[in-house]
Amino acid sequence: MRHPLLLAISAFVVWSGAFLTIYAVQATGCSLDWQSGNLGAWTSPLRLLLITMMVASVAAVVVILLRQLRPRLKAPVSETSSFINGVAIYVSIAALFSTAFCFTGVVWLTLCSA
Amino acid sequence: MTDPTSPGHDPIALHRALDRLWAGKPGWGRLAAVNHNVVGVRFMLTALVFFAIGGILAMLIRTQLASANSVFMDAETYGQVFTMHGTIMMFLFAIPFFEGMAIYLLPKLLGTRDLAFPRLGAYGYWCYLFGGMILIGALIGGVAPSGGWFMYTPLSSSVYSPGINSDVWLLGITFVEISALSAAVEIIVTIVKIRAAGMSLDRMPIFAWYMLVVATMMLVGFPPLILGSILLEVERAFDLPFFDPTRGGDPLLWQHLFWLFGHPEVYIIFLPAAGAISTILPVLSGTPLAGYRVIVAAIVSMAFLSFGLWVHHMYTGGIPHVALSFFSAASALVAVPTAVQIFAWLATMAHGRPRFSIPMLHIFGFFFVFVIGGLTGVMLAMVPFDWQAHDTHFVVAHLHYVLVGGFIFPMLAMAYYWLPHLTGKQPVQHLSNAAFWMIFIGFNVTFFFMHLTGLLGMPRRVFEYPTEFGWETLNFISSMGSFIMAMGFALVALDFILLFKFGRPFRRNPWKAGTLEWAMPTPPPSYNFASIPRVNKRADLLDPDTLGPYLASGRGYLGMPRNDRMEVLGVDPVTGEPDQVVMLPRQTYLPLWTAIATGAFFLMMLFKLYWATPLALISIIACFWLWTRRDPLPVENDLVPIGHGLSVPVHLHASTPPSYLAMVLTLVADATLYISLLFGCLFLWVSAPNWPPAGFVVDVKLLALAVGGVIMSCVGGRLAARPNGAVMVGSALALLGHLISTGLFLAIALLVLPAPSGHAAIASVFVIFIYAALHGTIGAVFAAHALWTSLGNRKAILSLDLRIGRLWHDYTAAAGICAAAFYLALQSLIGEGGL
Amino acid sequence: MLWGSVVLFTLVVGLFAATLFHPRFGRGLSQSGWIVWGGLVLPLPVLTALTFYAFSQGEFLLNGGSDKTEDVLEVRAVGSMWQWQFSYPSLPGSRTATDLLHIPAGRTIEIIAESEDVIHSFWVPRLGGKIDAVPGHANRLRIHADQPGRYGGVCSEYCGTGHAGMRFEVRAHTADDFEKAIIGELAR
Ligand code: HEM
Ligand SMILES: [Cu+2]
Ligand SMILES: [Cu+2]
Q1: What's the pTM?
Q2: Quick count: other Cβ atoms within 10 Å of Cβ C98?
Q3: Is residue A65 less than 8 Å (CB to CB) from chain B?
Q4: Which chain regions cross the lipid bilayer (chain A) (predicted)?
Q5: Fold observed for domain B658-832
Q6: Do C55 and A113 touch (CB under 8 A)?
Q7: What was the ipTM of the complex prediction?
Q8: pLDDT of B4 above 50
């Protein structure tokens, strides 16, 4: 019964989860000294890990958005459910942009303070 | 009795019958009031008193700063004054004011008679009042908190603030926050469940969407602050070193917990005001709100984003740049949903015929001031700029532009818009214009120049400054502006008094609004609607002028009191179709008594009478237990007719009654607190100095046994709650399981662990185990209650209680398992760090 | 940033006034047009550009606001209620000074901020950003003075009743004078 509302925000829930984990991994990585040790020319294990996480979370949000965009052919669409679906799509687009935008820093900014 | 739903359509007789049930009692009986009209107005009036106090403190600040080297106040007094100014404005004015507004307005906008939990509202009010009085008492006694409204440790810890001052803040504010959490639960359940018939999600008034989002934010935003306050109070009282760097604590933990609450708080204050604008502006523009759907999506996005910004208050704390970048990007992004709303409002105006009126004037004030605040906000969100402007008067200017723009001006617009509803009178409007311009000009003079003072390098929270820095002229201008503004507020107060005294009465709907609150007599009767409407389009496009008389004559749903009960409709959350009749409790002194017991607990903590606190705790639990006693009137076991040929069950037999939802929400808040606690303790391992601690061990067998106990109670609770389940056996099992696990967690915490004052790691495990034990204790009370009642065989009603109990048992089990897992995880991490 | 803000502010308030005083103003643009243009197209590029510019500016400042990053001089700044002690871990024989920080002009200085009691914050408005001195942590900040001269500094995190008076002075010297100053031999 409250599922439609929860589904509507799922993309942003992913964003929140990604936010917490990426921040936590970054802090833990710095404290365990994962940033040093070079993998190739420019990157460190920690940076690589963070980039992977960023890409994974963007992918997860994309999947959610695609599912919401798929037209529902079954059950006759009531005004209410099309409303909720519409809101859900807007929210997921916002979440997609946020996920792609918030974590770009992991690619090039200073990882740990000295 | 004949069919109660086909009344004689006599509004007067119906009014008498309903008013007899719903109206409050006179004299001392007022203390028993639970009606949302009464509680809402009490909240707002009390908040205004606090606003006046906070305003007077602001004038003291400005007097002090008007000249360099002022001798008006000394440093200590100034510290108390600015701390209390900030604290009062944020915790005792802004939040309670809009809580009161929501409590008053929501049922009316949703087309119903009261909130879901009237007693909870009353309890929240008393907690707010008593908590606020503790703070004001301290201010008068000269022992007010003085470390700034965000109470950074270690300045607020017992070493550097040995007096009672910080305790007043920690305990008083926590006490007040009880009212915020209870309001959050109450508002969510009401919006989700208690509406007019047919009010599906897409037909809800936009204000309800705003409040749904705000209340959810409160539900997850306040627990981190409450947790922080508890931990700091525990450090001050019992020397558990969560924030003490010499023993493995970290002052940064406090900052994270505080701002994890503190930033969403700003949006919690702004969104209700924005909701009011979204309600008022379309009416004044004579056209429906543009972009309803987009606005809903925008505020949902804003709610999420606002939880990802908290570190922008800690840019100068030495956090790595990449981490700052997440928060900086989110801070920039949060401006987008705001821009969407602002342009939706502009679109509404562009496509309507805006009428110029006093509320519109204040909305203009909002646009002007808030946009500036938003722009300086984006500047501050940029890390390099913030490194410069942080903790200067630039920030003070920014935050007042946001708060006054985003809250005070909308609030004044609301006041001018809805006071006719509340009083039944229209303003005389001689002073309103002048008052607005004085506030508006005074405000801008005061705070615009503070930006410059800040950029010239004046830090905030300084009680004096030397002449040669060139800050004096600007400060003097600011102070003059603030006095003009203060006079403006005095004029507004006078204006309102005149309205009460000499306002013109009017017939219905002075603004030609399309929302349900105008489909009732003004001032509103205690029960709002004599019968409950059916809504078949968006609830801001209705016609209150014809709906009002129709409802008053009892032709909607529930148009006749039945069995002397106070009833409202419960609806399906999505479609808005009625699915139950909710019986509301009558007036009672219980909320007051419970709040007094709660207050006694806080006072005992404050005056360090720790030995007496168990007594207070027991009386609080006893009081709440009394709440569960239902009035002896019979409860129909079959469907009851609600009018128009519909019949629905009574809420005690419905599939999702309000109380069940309330328990789910309470657990969400509780879980947020617990997760913050677990993360916080792990944060110490990552960040705090002086780790790892000297080794300490707990016998894993004891832990395994405790986990066995919680699993047992979980299984027992599930057995009991199954349809036709084994109530007695299940409850007994649950009780036994809780006793085992609680006993073990307590024993480990108190007897096995080394003294928790030795190191923050031990203190973390200690607190987490106590948390598990506390939940076990309450679970045991639930189980014992179920066992006791099942012996008396009141099966019918029990099933709801059992399902609620099951939720608690499940949660307690999860919490217990996490507690044990946390201990093991911490041990292995410490091992890794090199023991 | 300032001018951008002025433009945006004038735009929004101007639109408000226009819609209010000019009936039919803005009817030409559909409601969703208003929202899309004003709520998305207008802010998104501005914010994105600003954020990325701020990121790179932040990196630059983290390096001390100059490209010369090899020759960094470390200074320990220890805050306590209510004064600062400055010392030079890498310069043997240098003296610890109270509320007076000598630095060589033209060289990047790395402040290592620590605290003995509560949180303080090191800030010299004209030389760069600020950094909190948090007990138990050693936070770093790079500052840079181009010209010899005197610069005022303040504690910018509230630290109790002496907070307002917790000021200090930074003196930037030429290289020679600096050598003398830190061993206390520079005439005032
Ligand atoms: C009525 C006019 C007001 C004036 C003249 C005023 C003035 C001031 C000033 C000068 C300060 C800075 C004190 C300092 O740093 O030394 C301050 C701080 C503050 N004000 Fe106001 N204020 C007003 C209204 C409000 C309102 C309505 C709110 C919130 C809803 C508010 C919230 C705060 C907060 C949170 C602080 C920070 C306190 C701290 O640093 O701990 N103020 N105010
Ligand atoms: Cu913030
Ligand atoms: Cu200081």
Answers
A1: 0.95
A2: 10
A3: no
A4: 46-66, 87-111
A5: Four Helix Bundle (Hemerythrin (Met), subunit A) (1.20.120)
A6: no
A7: 0.94
A8: no
